[in-house]
Design goal:
This protein is an alpha/beta fold and about 200 residues long. Helices cover about 30% and strands about 25% of the residues.
């Protein structure tokens, strides 16, 4: 079967690499958005799903191909769900992982371990064309806790601070296969693929 072309609507190279690794084995011929444009749309919606739709429509319209986009972030219970949809820009523009992590640690200073519950959220949207009236939408979550200092040098974003209780390691200390199995992004993608399979029946 010929792989289906699909534009990955992300200008984040680490996120693109992670999604590409998840998508290619499923038969997609992944095209980077950077092949078509260096521009990114304004992500000003209040929810992960709406921001993912903004990115997917932008990519599909510019490329003329089906597009997939994710919007993801970290929600910390003690901070009322922050940084949430502002996760990538938590410490301001331009986005900077190290600065975001420093701000998060400062915000949680003095908060005991038992109250540092958090979860990663990923909203994944697939559009067959830019004006697709029935986008395929999937949401995945990954519960954990926020550490009081970074651990590990893998992953990206808040991974060094995100503790995975069942493995007793941070997300930055996981191998790619472990992360794909457990992560919010991996869970959202599996849900999306199940929906696509059901639609094809």
């Amino acid at each position: 079967m010929t792989p289906a072309p699909l534009v990955l609507a992300s200008q984040n190279p680490k996120k693109s690499s992670e999604l590409d690794a998840l998508l290619r084995p499923l038969g997609w011929q992944v095209q980077a958005l950077s092949r078509f444009t260096a521009d990114s749309p304004v992500e000003d919606a209040p929810t992960f799903v709406e921001n993912a739709l903004i990115k997917a429509r932008h990519a599909a319209r510019i490329s003329g191909l089906p597009a997939i986009a994710d919007d993801s972030g970290l929600e910390v219970a003690a901070l009322g769900g922050a940084p949430g949809v502002r996760s990538a820009r938590y410490a301001g523009e331009p986005s900077d992982d190290a600065a975001n992590n420093r701000r998060l640690l400062a915000a949680l200073s003095g908060v005991p371990a038992a109250e540092r519950g958090a979860r990663f959220v990923c909203a994944l949207v697939l559009l067959r064309h830019a004006d697709d009236p029935v986008p395929v939408i999937a949401v995945g979550t990954w519960p954990g806790q926020i550490l009081d200092a970074p651990h590990g040098d893998g992953g990206f974003g808040y991974d060094p601070l995100f503790f995975v209780p069942e493995l007793q390691r941070s997300a930055a200390e996981l191998g790619a296969d472990e992360k794909a199995r457990l992560s919010h992004r991996g869970r959202a993608l599996r849900s999306l693929m199940q929906q696509l399979a059901a639609d094809a029946r």
